[in-house]
Amino acid sequence: xxxxxxxxxxxxxxxxxxxxxxxxxxxxLFGMAFCFLHVLFLLLLPIxxxxxxxxxxxFVLGLFVDLFYDTVGIHTASMLxxxxxxxxxxxxxxxxxxxxxxxRPTILNVxxxxxxxxxxxxxxxxxxxxxxxxxxxxxxxxxxxxxxIASTIFVFxxxxxxxxxxxxxxxxx
Amino acid sequence: MQRILLFLYSLRAFLLFVLLEAVAxxxxxxxxxxxxxxxxxSSNKFSGKVLTAQKNVSEYFSLADVNARLLDTxxxxxxxxxxLRKPADSAYVFVDSVLAANFEFKGAKVINNSxxxxxxxxxxxxxxxxxxxxxxxxxxxxxxxxxxxxVSTNFATVISLLHTELLISSKVDSSEVFGSIKWxxxxxxxxxxxxxxxxxxxxxGDNIVTSGYNAIFPEGIKVGVxxxxxxxxxxxxxxxxxxxxTDFTKISYVYLVENTVxxxxxxxxxxxxxxxx
Lengths: 173, 277
Hints:
The complex is a heterodimer of chains A (173) and B (277).
Chain A: H1 3-22, H2 38-43, H3 51-69, H4 74-92, H5 107-110, H6 112-134, H7 142-166
Chain B: H1 2-10, H2 12-31, H3 45-58, H4 63-84, E1 103-113, E2 119-124, E3 137-139, E4 144-151, E5 156-163, E6 168-172, E7 178-182, E8 190-194, E9 207-210, E10 222-230, E11 239-244, E12 253-259, H5 262-271
Antiparallel strand pairs in B: 1-2, 1-12, 2-5, 3-4, 3-12, 4-5, 6-7, 6-9, 7-8, 8-11, 9-10, 10-11
Keywords (chain A): Membrane, Transmembrane, Transmembrane helix
Transmembrane segments (chain A): 6-24, 29-47, 67-85, 106-133, 148-167
Protein name (chain A): Rod shape-determining protein MreD
């Protein structure tokens, strides 16, 4: 991984977190569809990223978003789960030819079918963990399930749009 | 020994995951209490600055609405002033300072607000520098908003009334029946009133105001209007649903209230073994 790619990743890290805390934090569709788009940054790290670096990145990003949501630790805990599951999940989904070197798993690189099977379960787990911890101690079952499903669909659709708009083939942003 | 180390090394990713997850859970447990520190939330210096910058832009879009609300409040205050104004031939009697007001009020701007989670918070642009302390009550022209949680130098985090663990001691205005207001986590328009016994008569449309028992809010700040009374499943208490007076989607400015004798009251309650909700 050369320095220009590191720079691109750093810039997209800053952009993702700023957009999340300034714009998307105030965007809740129908009162239940939240948009945690910062998860997409973790999902779009280069495919060969090991679990340990992605755990650290997830921890920092989660803590940063937590500061602004006033949900100390909840985003962090959910991010860590995703960061831990990401690498094994990519291994499970390896296509017959294997992956190209230094590839980022964007729609343009891997196709919409592979991206859906890759990202949908991870988005679902993220929302599941987040809303489960957030609603501990309350007796809301149905509203929480609604929030989890609506948020997963919303963030999936938005992540497709973002990739089609801002990502180019092969090389990052 | 070497094999143990090798075994642990092969598990290093999992061990790191467990360690970091433990840190996250420790954060959740220790910083989400009602009286938290101000460091790990939106009232610390850095996030406060970012939120202020964001609010400076977005507040232009709500100026008209804020103006209309201020006008309404102004009109109400003018009416009250007219009532209090002494007629020409009246005599002024000095009342002893025992009966003087025990509350001080301050104003602040809301720079961050959430209503859709189950534990919502607000951030305001005043902090310990301006005399804000944890535990102060927060309300606006419409009704009760919440309670201060953590304070930094320039900002403070407020637990919204839309927080499933915040109880506000309140009463029915006409009959003086008291209970606690608690949000059930579903709709930002409605909350529940707990601990009202079954034999009490309350009707839809009754006003709910703060009771003044727990020394956070003065008596008589509006909380909401009863929209539904049910017998409910609890054998002792009524199931009362209250439509909140405050529109949490449009909070821009709030007032903070400090009880100047709260310390005295608290120590009195403590020494006599009373815990107040």
